[in-house]
Specification:
191 residues; mainly alpha; Tetracycline Repressor, domain 2; 2 domains; globular
């Protein structure tokens, strides 16, 4: 059942999502519980559960907000960019340098290992992302088969997400493999 919220309800829901994200960033996935998020949001557990019945629902909302913010950043970067691919890569690779964003995604991945609902939500997200990239790629690489575009899109996502682990662990300022990573990502899309 999808609830319709008033403006105040939407504001409260957004406050809970922010509190959940802040808790993930500050305390990690092992400490995340609806009760602690409710306390951080300044409300009772019962009030929070009106908006999010369980932890999976809250995690799904945190992911949705991350995706909304990321898509908005990509759209803003691409607007008027002379090279939209480079602008997109700037945003996506820049997320690897944002400690809070990295912690949120690492936490969501950790939850997906033991929570089937979260695993399904992430699987659906990545399936849609790969399909979206395949459609975007068809504009610049119409010569490729649908299967080849899907494979390249999947490899792009796998390389981007996998590299986020290694890039998050590197020393600040270490850009040893950044140029090669950017080139391979670009090659998957255009090459």
């Amino acid at each position: 059942m999808t609830r319709r919220f008033t403006a105040k309800g939407l504001e409260t829901r957004a406050r809970i999502v922010r509190a959940g994200r802040e808790a993930l960033v500050a305390d990690g996935p092992e400490a995340l519980a609806l009760r602690s998020v409710a306390a951080r949001a300044g409300m009772s557990l019962g009030n929070l559960q009106f908006y999010f019945a369980d932890l999976d629902a809250l995690l799904a909302a945190i992911l949705a907000e991350e995706l909304r913010a990321g898509a908005a950043a990509v759209e803003a970067a691409r607007a008027g960019a002379t090279d939209p691919i480079e602008a997109t890569l700037d945003v996506l690779l820049g997320q690897h340098d944002d400690v809070a964003t990295v912690k949120v995604f690492f936490s969501l991945w950790a939850f997906a290992v033991g929570r089937p609902k979260m695993a399904r939500i992430l699987r659906e997200f990545y399936t849609e992302l790969v399909a979206h990239l395949g459609r975007e790629m068809s504009v610049v690489r119409a010569d490729l088969s649908d299967e080849e575009r899907e494979t390249r899109a999947w490899l792009f996502v796998a390389l981007l997400e996998g590299s986020s682990v290694l890039r998050a662990l590197r020393k600040r300022g270490d850009e040893t493999h950044s140029a090669a990573l950017r080139e391979k990502l670009r090659e998957l899309l255009l090459g």
